[in-house]
Design brief:
327 residues, alpha/beta, seven-stranded parallel sheet, five-stranded parallel sheet, 33% helix, elongated
Length: 327
């Protein structure tokens, strides 16, 4: 009989040999539930020691069903689907995996930005319909005469800033939690608040976590501080940007376009109003994805479980603040 039981809901691939090999280090059995199948989840979690998840909602009702669970690992960066305090109340530590990416999101953001800024979708359609004229592209502006505003200067925000600078762009940044030396080291011009960021930047790339304070942080008032050629990019969490306000700003011609890898509702209910603009580019929350990133995520998620049971600690604990001091 195995020493521990790990339940993994929504593993990235059907081949879970990587996870099994890591779990063998602590003599743990593994149960893999390929989708959010509550019948299977409720059957398997009562005696689990660890739970590894993606999109499963962790709330009081679910926590009551797994009295033996000691650790939950979310195979992603965001943790807005987990009630962190409730987990702590049940004695369960929670970790995320913020270090699995190697530049995928920032590459994706810049790809979307360049496609919109250079009007690639529109121009491709013109050529396919028999038109061949530089006049279709007018006006286009040199990137090194423009600036990128980074809303949230964590790892991904700083990687995006680096890529923007590679094109000669000036980079502004807002993040209330980072020390001044980070901005200096990354050659990011720090601004005092989001309003200043929107006023000074040509374009905005959003990299904020979703919290009550950041919900609809990108709103109509701030969008109106931008310029008619501005592009808004969101690869963080959909509700950080108000879709209704973004639609209004685009409809009124206050900004030029948007690149959205995330939306307020995922998947969106159709018809999607923002789809009426050919200067809006959508992708289905895939900015994080590469084969290498998913391999890293699979490995690091289970390594975190092993670390907890062998060392008594987590590398990336996200609910420590809800435990009594010293716990």
């Amino acid at each position: 009989m195995a020493r521990y039981k790990i339940v993994n809901v929504q593993p990235y691939w059907e081949d879970c040999s990587i996870e099994r090999k890591i779990a063998d280090q602590i003599d743990a059995s593994c149960v893999f539930i390929m989708d959010i199948d509550y019948e299977a989840i409720y059957r398997e979690i009562p005696d689990c020691d660890a739970l590894v998840i993606q999109y499963l909602k962790i709330d009081e009702d679910l926590l009551k069903r797994m009295p033996g669970c000691k650790v939950i690992v979310r195979s992603a960066v965001g943790i807005n689907n987990i009630d962190l305090k409730a987990c702590a109340d049940h004695g369960i530590y929670v970790a995320n995996v913020p270090d699995y990416l190697q530049g995928e999101v920032s590459d994706h953001v810049m790809a979307m930005f360049l496609a919109i800024n250079r009007k690639l979708r529109f121009l491709d359609g013109r050529v396919r319909s028999g038109h061949w004229s530089v006049n279709d592209a007018r006006p286009l502006y040199l990137l090194k005469t423009q600036s990128m505003g980074i809303l949230g200067c964590g790892q991904i925000g700083r990687q995006t800033a680096s890529r923007a600078r590679a094109f000669g762009m000036k980079v502004y940044g807002y993040d209330p939690f980072l020390p001044e030396e980070v901005f200096l080291a990354e050659n990011i011009i720090r601004v005092k608040d989001p309003d200043e960021l929107f006023s000074r930047s040509d374009h905005i790339s959003v990299h904020m976590p979703l919290t009550p304070e950041t919900t609809h942080m990108v709103n109509y008032d701030r969008l109106c501080r931008l310029k008619k050629h501005s592009i808004v990019l969101n690869s963080s969490r959909g509700p950080v940007v108000s879709n209704d306000d973004l639609y209004r700003a685009l409809k009124e011609g206050r900004i030029f376009g948007a690149g959205l890898d995330v939306l307020e509702e995922e998947p969106p209910t159709l018809p999607l109003r923002l789809a009426e603009f050919d200067t809006v580019l959508f992708t289905p929350h895939v900015g994080y994805y590469s084969q290498e990133a998913e391999m890293n995520m699979k490995r690091k998620s289970f390594e975190e479980v092993v670390r907890f049971f062998t060392e008594g600690r987590l590398k990336h604990c996200v609910n420590q603040q809800f435990f009594p001091q010293g716990a």
